Structures are given as structure tokens and as C-alpha cells.
Input
Amino acid sequence: MFGSVKGLREVEYVRERVLWDTSWAPGGLKETRFLNQLIFTKNDEWKYERELRQLFTLRGLPNRTLDDGSQGYFLPIPAQIVVSVSLGMRCSTALENAVRSTLKHSHLRHVRLDRARPHEADFALTFEVKEGV
Output
């Protein structure tokens, strides 16, 4: 999770799918609005995530060739805007240990670490704060 960052937008959680109209002109205002809505909309079953999203133009971002030969683009993120790291319920112990080790660096000690667990009664996840980071 990040603190206040310019350009981050809250995802809108809805019950109905975003609909596409094939009569819209490619590159027109209606298509642009649709694409923007599609990017920032998600089924309301995911609302527990309270997700934020941001779009970036790849041109101008630092990049490098990844191990699989594809191009990776990277956006530097200042450490002070990171509020928490949430691990999924199937996260490996090795990855959790690597994250814990990283969060021990002095510029990241303010970051909370939590882990997803299945909710006891609901079809949902709960997040427990992991101590001793």
C-alpha cells in the first residue's frame, strides 16, 4: 500500500460488467472513456482489496532486458511512500523471508508487513500483521 501519491486512483467496484459498443469510433471520446473505465473498474467481490491504480507511459521509464529476454520497465518508488506490504496466502516462506530481510533496511523500517489468510466464515480474506519485521 502506498501513501498519498499524485495520479493514484481508487478502483471502482461494481456488480455489472463494463459494456463495449462496437459502433464507437476507434480513438474517439466514447472509446477513450470506456478504456479508462475498464482499467479502473473491478467486480465488487474484490472490494476488500481497496486497490489503487495508476497508468504510466513506458516511454522514458528506466528499462532493462529480463532473464526471459523480454523488456522490463521500472518506475523508481520513493521508500517513504510505501506504507505496507501484503503477502498472499500462498506466498512461499522463502519469499516472505526475503521481504522481511528487505524491510529491515533503515529506510523501510516504517513499512508494515501483513499476510492474507482465509476468513473463518466468509468467502473473503483477512490480513494479519506479521510481527518481528
Q: What stands out?
A: The first helix runs from residue 29 to 39.
